[in-house]
Amino acid sequence: MTRDEFNAFCAGFPATSHVIQWGNADVWKVADKVFAICGWADGRDAFTFKVTDFAFEILPDMPGIRPAPYLASRGMKWVQVYDAPGLPEDELKEHIALSYQLVAEGISKKKRRELGIPVPGEG
């Protein structure tokens, strides 16, 4: 996945915003909460996102994936795909979509409704 493809994919989720920060990284947020980051790792795009506890135990053992610098060291369950082979594009997209859902779950149901973010069990 290229940086442009990453940005287009993240833009497709409801109520997202995009900022450039942290050394020219593309940072995607839902209701002002970060759910995905594309920055640089040794001159290559690196994709960072939130994962479940189980995925945090499994993914960093795969080549090209590590606990996300800074975030994981603070106890957060985030990983970074930084090198080949990493993840196939379809799996990377699935993990980014799940990251969006995990972060959105931390937003109140009332706020999610206001922003047009699907609330499980409704609609």
Task: Write the element-wise H/E pattern from the N-terminal end onward.
Answer: HEEEEHEEHH
Q: Which structural class should the secondary elements be placed in?
A: alpha+beta
Integer-rounded radius of gyration = 14 Å
For the record, the CATH architecture stands as Alpha-Beta Complex
Cα end-to-end separation:
32 Å
If strands are numbered along the chain, what order do they take across the biggest sheet? 1-2-3-4-6-5
Total count of domains: 1
Count all strands and give the number. 6
Biggest sheet record: 6 strands, antiparallel
What fold name stands as the CATH topology? Aspartate Aminotransferase, domain 1
Low-confidence region ranges? none
Question: Quick one: overall form?
Answer: globular
Quick recap of the structure?
The chain is globular, with a radius of gyration of 14 Å. It is built from four helices and six strands. A six-stranded antiparallel beta sheet has the order 1-2-3-4-6-5.
Task: Note down, in words, how this protein is organized.
The protein is an alpha+beta fold and 123 residues long. It has a single domain, classed as Aspartate Aminotransferase, domain 1 (Alpha-Beta Complex). Helix content is 32%, strand content 28%. It contains 4 helices and 6 strands; from the N terminus they run αββββαββαα. The chain has helices at residues 3-11, 53-58, 89-105, 109-115; strands at 16-21, 25-30, 33-41, 44-50, 65-67, 78-81. A 6-stranded antiparallel β-sheet has the order 1-2-3-4-6-5. Strand 3 and strand 4 (44-50) form a beta hairpin. The chain is globular and about 40 Å long. The protein starts with a helix and ends in an 8-residue tail after the last helix.
